[in-house]
Write a structure and sequence with these properties.
By secondary structure, this protein is mainly alpha-helical. The chain has 16 helices and 3 strands. It has a 3-stranded antiparallel sheet with strand order 2-1-3, covered by helices on one side.
Length: about 425
């Protein structure tokens, strides 16, 4: 009997979940003026949509399920940029006096991404049933992290939710722009290495064997450099599958280790901070994230100790995350923020001095925003400089690889010409 009740409960939960899933339909009908209308909407079923259309004055509605595309039937994944745009839209509508439930209906109706539309409609349904926005967002932690939830919660308690949402929108947009700059900075060196490896592989597999067949008729010893290139070509042709397997396996193992091992992830983060140019960009990025995130949370009314606990994971680097957690512990015992920052030894003197001034003047959030803006600009300048430096570097690397191959292949020809 107990087993049957459990099964019935599970079945009921499954049916409830299925009922919450919205599907896309296209419809057509005639309104009260006799004008033919059509559109596309999400609904739980054809029957539910037809009933809703009749309530809105559409007679004889015809409803058809939209055909799913061959690829990406479930819609695009929800990106952080989607969340940033949603935050801006919701903040704008609330500042205009539009009720939250209606605002969610407007925003969700304008979404082209099915997943994003379903997400917003589910949150809107929770809010319509009396759930607070922060609680509704907490049901979707994959898209709304603790920082987002805490800021909304603080805004609700202080009665300034529209202002907080506007601050969140600015914050999300700034952080996503910064992330894009970091990805760009790491992308360029990766491209140089990948292109160099690809060009070398093509030359060793397709070009060198042609010269090798030609050299067999010389009947003379080949220069050491030429022999080295030929040996590399033979090795690559014979063991290419092993090399490819090692590369793919190494990439997979590295990514897996970064996700599962915090010690390995910390080692990689420390290594990145020590790389010339790239390391400075990573330092400035972490400081900018720390400053902006702490400024936003503190401005929203979150207590400093709680804010630091939330900020730690937003720095994007485990070295700085550990430092911020140590700062949190020191602040919790009564140390001023600037004194606690000095103890960890990762923040520049200017950051600590501006923090001290902000604490003394009672304008900590304002000073932290200025620090964030300064270091974000430093990241922008460094990435632009790196981009300019990479372009000639690509030509030098590829030219060096191709030139070395050409010299190695033509050395026997020059040697034979000299002998004649």
């Amino acid at each position: 009997m107990a087993a049957s009740r459990t099964a019935a409960a599970k079945s009921a939960k499954t049916n409830a979940r299925n009922d919450d899933i919205l599907k896309q339909y296209s419809w057509s009908g005639v309104d009260k003026r006799g004008i033919k209308m059509k559109g596309e909407e999400s609904a739980k079923s054809e029957t539910a949509l037809k009933l809703d259309l009749r309530k809105r004055g559409i007679s004889n509605p015809e409803v058809k399920a939209k055909a799913k595309p061959l690829f990406g039937a479930a819609g695009k994944t929800i990106s952080p940029q989607d969340i940033a745009v949603f935050s801006r839209q919701l903040a704008t509508m609330m500042q205009s006096g539009i009720p939250m439930v209606q605002a969610f209906g407007i925003v969700s109706g304008g979404q082209k991404n099915i997943r994003m539309q379903n997400l917003l409609e589910n949150i809107g349904s929770d809010i319509a049933s009396g759930t607070a926005l922060s609680e509704a967002l907490s049901k979707h932690p994959l898209y709304f992290d603790k920082l987002y939830q805490n800021l909304v919660f603080a805004g609700e308690n202080a009665g300034v939710l529209d202002t907080v949402l506007d601050t969140i929108a600015n914050y999300k947009e700034s952080i996503e722009t910064l992330k894009g700059k970091i990805k760009k900075a790491l992308f360029y060196p990766s491209v140089v290495i990948a292109v160099a490896i690809l060009v070398t592989a093509i030359l060793l597999i397709f070009v060198v064997p042609t010269f090798q067949n030609l050299f067999k008729g010389f009947g003379a010893d080949l220069p050491a450099f030429t022999q080295l290139i030929i040996a590399a070509s033979d090795f690559l042709i014979k063991w290419w599958w092993v090399i490819l397997g090692v590369i793919v396996g190494g990439v997979f193992l590295t990514i897996s280790s970064l996700k599962r091992s915090r010690a390995f992830a910390e080692f990689v983060d420390r290594l990145l901070l020590k790389i010339p140019v790239i390391g400075q960009i990573m330092h400035n990025s972490a400081i900018a994230r720390f400053s902006r995130t702490l400024a936003v949370t503190f401005k929203a009314g979150v207590p400093l100790v709680d804010a630091l606990a939330t900020v730690a994971g937003a720095t994007g680097n485990i070295v700085y995350e550990n430092a911020v957690m140590r700062i949190k512990d020191d602040v919790a015992t009564g140390y001023p923020l600037n004194v606690a920052m000095k103890q960890v030894g990762v923040f520049p003197h200017m950051v600590m001095q501006m923090t001290a001034i902000g604490e003394e003047a009672g304008a900590l959030d304002t000073m932290l925003f200025k620090v964030a803006e300064f270091y974000e600009q430093e990241v922008n300048n460094a990435v632009d400089a790196l981009s300019s430096l990479i372009e000639p570097m690509v030509m030098i690397v590829i030219g060096g690889v191709v030139g070395s191959m050409v010299i190695g292949m033509y050395l026997p020809v020059f040697k034979l010409a000299a002998a004649i």
